[in-house]
User: Fold this.
Amino acid sequence: MELSKYKSKIPSNIYDKLILRIKELRPAQHKAIDAGLFDDKNLLICTPTASGKTLVAELAIMNAIFHDKGKCMYVVPLKALANEKFEFFKKMHEFKTAISSGDIDSDDSYLEKYDLIITTSEKFDSLIRHKTHWLSKVKVVIIDEIHLLNDASRGPTLEVLITILKDQLKRLQLIGLSATIGNPKDLASWLDAELIIDNWRPVKLHKGILLNSEIEFFEHK
Assistant:
């Protein structure tokens, strides 16, 4: 779908930045816009790897920073992924981006001056428990790999984190991202989110069996 066809649905200051590097929207991206991305609707994006979920997160973040004048939190499960996302957003955008994934006994007050904060669920939970005053300014929270709610080690912290956010931040827009969710409708209902499901992927997926150094692919029906 051509980006220009969605010009009327995207705030002008965001559209002007997007059109410089993006000409077409992938299915999950225009479905998210149609579902209310720019109307602050909660969204659960369940699409394959490399299908464009990160841009959906970008759009929500840009809307919060440039349009709603709020702060954003991007929550990831691992420090390595936090570093990856930090480098990406620093390269792609001019807004102030910070990373906070270390000492869980600190309230990191310096983060108040940043627009986007990349963090882990454990660190974010710590910031809430320290009653960090700037958290009231958070407008958008992105939960990457949200299927880890089902993980025995990380799931409980993530579930408590989301529950607290929903209770304390009444203006919050929550965006969940995942390629693998077993019960997406149930999760979307719990999040009070619009569910976006799509099977489009940039490279066709072939399935087969490897035996004796030879692969026999299944036929597509």
User: Anything to note?
Assistant: The longest helix spans residues 53-67.
